[in-house]
Amino acid sequence: MANVRGIEHVGMTVPNIEEAEAFFIEAFDADVLYRVLPKSADDQSGEEVGAINGMPRDNAQRAISMLRMGGGANLELFEVSKPTGEPAQICSLGLTHFSIVVDDIDAAGRAAKAAGATMFEGPQDCFDAESGPGNKLWFFHTPWGSLVEMLQLPSEMTYREGATKRRFIPPKEA
């Protein structure tokens, strides 16, 4: 039996780490905790790190930083020499998005848009287990095409009979 404690961070590849850091700082008051691989350092080639993280031999990590937004999981940003892929869609294979819990989804949406996000239609009322008075969701693409969801959840989740655990919701910071 694994001794799982929870998700500590989510990784995201970006075309320009300084611009990505600035986006999350402006839109969501993120903090850069540290830079694992500063942009000023030498690139880490796929030959060096590929056996550790799957980086192709003909690619390289140019910069890595760790960010924190509020009381949730951390966000690790990667800039690589040859990014691949299309803008994320909810139907893309693999991890498609992460969600940021906010207290005021309208204000968060304005901040994300001002920072360069492309907003989808919203905010929308949450549905099914997430429904409740004031519970809203709103998706957007970052300036580089990653998909992110915002959730406003002032009301309790609806749990079906037999649920043995509660969903993690980042607490309000003191």
Helix and strand arrangement:
Layout: E1 9-14, H1 17-28, E2 31-37, E3 44-45, H2 46-53, E4 60-68, E5 74-80, E6 97-101, H3 105-114, E7 118-119, E8 124-125, E9 136-141, E10 147-152
Parallel strand pairs: 1-5, 6-10
Antiparallel strand pairs: 2-4, 3-4, 4-5, 7-9, 8-9, 9-10
Helix pairs in contact: 1-3
Describe the structure.
The protein is of the alpha+beta class and 174 residues long. It folds into two domains: 7-83, Signal recognition particle alu RNA binding heterodimer, srp9/1; 85-162, Roll (2,3-Dihydroxybiphenyl 1,2-Dioxygenase, domain 1). The chain is 17% helix and 30% strand. The protein is built from three helices and ten strands; from the N terminus they run βαββαβββαββββ. Strands 1, 2, 3, 4 and 5 form a five-stranded mixed β-sheet that branches. Strands 6, 7, 8, 9 and 10 form a five-stranded mixed β-sheet that branches. Helix 1 packs antiparallel against helix 3 (105-114). It is globular, with a radius of gyration of 18 Å. The mean pLDDT is 92.
How many domain regions? Answer: 2
The CATH architecture assignment of the largest domain turns out to be: Roll
Order of helices and strands: EHEEHEEEHEEEE
CATH class of the largest domain: Alpha Beta
> Tally the helices: what do you get?
3
The share of residues in helices is 10-25%
Give a short account of the largest sheet. 5 strands, mixed
Q: Can you say what the CATH homologous superfamily of the largest domain is?
A: 2,3-Dihydroxybiphenyl 1,2-Dioxygenase, domain 1
Rg is 18 Å
Mean pLDDT: 92
General form:
globular
Q: Count of DSSP E strands? A: 10
Main structural class: alpha+beta
CATH topology of the largest domain: 2,3-Dihydroxybiphenyl 1,2-Dioxygenase, domain 1
Hey, roughly how much beta strand do the residues contain? 25-35%
Distance between the termini: 35 Å
